[in-house]
């Protein structure tokens, strides 16, 4: 039996159903695969471990595929995609429109994620005919419990890094009225998705095994998985425009 170490991007959750179901139903063992799922301490741990060769596969958002580029990184394909963006509580929508000071809860407040979060709001504002000042939007690092954070702390006007299948559904369940600003409302390329990522070294060593993993995953999601350099091209341009990360054309093409 061949062991495969797969590192997640965050805690185990429904976005990882293909791996969870495969383990519970013993499908990986039937394929002679001993799948070991690793829950990381930090969101980007998998990239470092992948570059060192200590894991075989990592799953993470495509935005980090560019941000943590290293020679030999390879995309196996996107296996999950949802709507994502910034959630604004209903009672704070006018504060946003009036360009008043607002506070946004987020699990990761840093220069890059804050810049992208504000860009989503700014593009939405422009589309709707109003303007925002960066100094009026404050991102505060908390955790992923967005709805509870906003319900327990009314100083939070919104939440950033929201997945609709989590926070959108939870807000509906909790009757928490909000404006969910995603790629349908703000003109930016969606990146709320998960990619299977490996390295050229692992791919060359275990290509037959990778094929089995992909073949097992496809029917579970009812979706084709393939490496598509066009899928995230707009996202790479978006990140370059924001001066977050700029890959050469050669490095970008080498990913796929």
Automatic annotation (TrEMBL):
Key words of the record: Iron, Metal-binding, Pyridoxal phosphate, Thiamine biosynthesis, Transferase
InterPro entries xref list: NMT1/THI5, SsuA/THI5
Catalyzed reactions per annotation: N(6)-(pyridoxal phosphate)-L-lysyl-[4-amino-5-hydroxymethyl-2-methylpyrimidine phosphate synthase] + L-histidyl-[4-amino-5-hydroxymethyl-2-methylpyrimidine phosphate synthase] + 2 Fe(3+) + 4 H2O = L-lysyl-[4-amino-5-hydroxymethyl-2-methylpyrimidine phosphate synthase] + (2S)-2-amino-5-hydroxy-4-oxopentanoyl-[4-amino-5-hydroxymethyl-2-methylpyrimidine phosphate synthase] + 4-amino-2-methyl-5-(phosphooxymethyl)pyrimidine + 3-oxopropanoate + 2 Fe(2+) + 2 H(+)
Domain SsuA/THI5-like: 13-214
Pathway annotation: Cofactor biosynthesis; thiamine diphosphate biosynthesis
An example Gene Ontology molecular-function term: transferase activity
BP-aspect Gene Ontology terms: thiamine biosynthetic process
Family in the record: Belongs to the NMT1/THI5 family.
Annotated function: Responsible for the formation of the pyrimidine heterocycle in the thiamine biosynthesis pathway. Catalyzes the formation of hydroxymethylpyrimidine phosphate (HMP-P) from histidine and pyridoxal phosphate (PLP). The protein uses PLP and the active site histidine to form HMP-P, generating an inactive enzyme. The enzyme can only undergo a single turnover, which suggests it is a suicide enzyme.
Subunit structure comment from the entry: Homodimer.
Protein name, as recorded: Thiamine pyrimidine synthase
Organism for this UniProt entry: Poseidonibacter parvus
């Amino acid at each position: 039996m061949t062991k495969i170490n797969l590192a997640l991007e965050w805690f185990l959750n429904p976005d990882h159903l293909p791996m969870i179901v495969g383990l519970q139903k013993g499908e990986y063992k039937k394929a002679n695969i001993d799948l070991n799922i690793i829950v990381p301490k930090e969101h980007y741990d998998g990239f470092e471990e992948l570059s060192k060769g200590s894991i075989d596969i990592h799953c993470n958002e495509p935005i980090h595929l560019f941000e943590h580029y290293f020679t030999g990184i390879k995309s196996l394909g996107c296996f999950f995609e949802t709507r994502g963006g910034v959630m604004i509580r209903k009672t704070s929508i006018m504060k946003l429109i009036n360009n008043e000071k607002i506070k946004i809860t987020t699990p990761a407040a840093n220069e890059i994620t804050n810049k992208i979060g504000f860009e989503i709001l700014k593009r939405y504002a422009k589309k709707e005919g109003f303007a925002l000042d960066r100094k009026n939007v404050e991102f505060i690092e908390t955790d992923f419990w967005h709805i509870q954070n906003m319900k327990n702390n009314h100083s939070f006007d919104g939440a950033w890094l929201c997945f609709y299948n989590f926070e959108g559904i939870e807000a509906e369940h909790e009757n928490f009225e909000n404006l969910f600003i995603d790629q349908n409302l703000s003109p930016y390329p969606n990146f709320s998705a998960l990619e299977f990522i490996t390295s050229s070294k692992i791919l060359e060593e275990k290509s037959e095994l990778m094929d089995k993993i992909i073949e097992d995953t496809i029917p579970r999601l009812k979706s084709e998985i393939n490496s598509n350099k066009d899928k995230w091209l707009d996202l790479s341009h978006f990140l370059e425009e924001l001066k977050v990360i700029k890959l050469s054309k050669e490095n970008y093409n080498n990913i796929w």
